[in-house]
Amino acid sequence: MKRYSLLVALLVMLWATESMAYTIGFGNLGGSNLSAFNSYTESGYTVSATGGSWFVAKVFGNGIPAIGAGPIYNPGVSQITMTYDDGEQFTFQGVDLSSNVAGGTSYLIEGFLGGADVFSVTATINSINTFETNLFSSIENFNIDELTITGTPGDRTTSFNIDNIRAGQGDSPGCVNPSSCQPVPEPASILLLGAGLAGIEVWRRRRGVG
Over 60: is that where the pLDDT of 175 sits? Predict the structure, then answer.
């Protein structure tokens, strides 16, 4: 039984060190459905419309609300840019993307650090009006200070949407090598770490270790 208690404590500590992601879900997005979207800030992350024409999606999202590219029936190439606080570093871990025509929208996702291109990946939507979860494990440990997502609509596409941008805080200035990145745990992670340490202490006391 004591061994199980120690194992649980160690697992909690491990989870604490990995629980540093945050999802920008646009939950407090203002405006009415299809009103113009310009900028939105959530927990220090700011998402801004930097190309094309974006709108507030109050009847469609994963879950609702989300942001979409328009105007409807002529979306054009549209881009958003995301930053964290006053230019602090963060990591990109995934995003939910959609298109109202299967294979009708391709997305270019780019990360920058100090103006230099750190990574560039693409994603093409293969379903209609359904959000596809795009995870990018190959780049999630690279620290950046700016993220851009550019949507290019295909033939007959009339709108496309973005929701749930997943990011993590980076805390190593100039860190672009995953093996040297050392992010700082969020408050919830610190609480989990404390719970793990407390579990180990209880185990030690039961064994009579001073």
Answer: no
